[in-house]
Each structure stands twice: as C-alpha cells, then as structure tokens.
Amino acid sequence: MTIKEGDRIPEGTLAEYVQVETDACGLGPNPFKVGEQAKGKTVALFAVPGAFTPTCSEKHLPGYLEAADQLKAKGVDEIWCVAVNDPFVMGAWGKSLGVDGRVRMLGDGSGTWTKSLGLELDLVDKGLGVRSQRYSALLRDGVVEKLNLEQGPGLNVSDAQTLLKQL
Asked: What CATH number matches the domain at 13-166, 3.30.450.20, 3.40.30.10, 3.40.440.10, 2.60.40.1930?
C-alpha cells in the first residue's frame, strides 16, 4: 500500500550524520525517530533514488537549498532529504553541496522506512538495489498534506518550486 494525502506517516527510524557535536546530538550517526521529529512541525520532505547521482546532485537537492529561505518564510520548520543510503554517505553528500544545516540529510540505509511508505523503487536489475522513488511531500504534524510522486525518470513534480507553490 502506498501512502497518500491525508495519511499519517509511519513510525520508523532514519539516521542523520551530525558533523558538529551539540548537547542534543553526538558526533556521527544519530537515530532519527520520524514520528517524534515530525510532531508539531511543518516539514518539506523530499526523497531521491540516491546520493551523488546526477539529477539528485545537480537539480533536486540544490533546488531545495536555493528555496530554503522561501520555504521557511512560508511556515516550513524543517526540510528533510531522505535516500536509501547510509548516514555517512548522506553526511558526505550534504557536505559536498554545502547543505550546512539548511536541509536534514537522512539515511534510510536498508530502505525499511521507504518500504513502509510503499515508495520503494526496485533497481536490482541495474545493479543499484532497492531505492526510493523520487517524490516530495508536505507534512503537517506527521500527516501528509501534499504528495508529489514522480511518474518516471526526471524531476517534474517533486522539485522545491512545486512544493513552494503548494504552501
């Protein structure tokens, strides 16, 4: 079953690589309880098939970085990027693109949470394993208000500007 608008996101744990230790987060991978982190927040969530891949690195993530201030001005508390990659890869990818805290880079290493959404993408025949479909979602207090699922390759409906217009 695929998640849809009006549904509550499933519980799950993602991992975030923290590069600067704080009182709240230790250095390195930290568990990220999705339900707890979404509670009481408006979240712009987008998912990509993989870190360091061309469309994801050249368009998808950079679009959210460029629109971060506009999204926050329209009431978004946090921007989350999810990929079926480990937190070390997500941290390195964010560092390489200068994310600098504007987007939370969240690894779903085994794809467990992605599968619970029904949004996995089987790329085993291409040697890439099971990944995430490309999508964006607007979450309010853990409920999917908007879901923009790409219906094939490319970046047509899950970009930051589409989500910005939906706010």
From this structure: 3.40.30.10
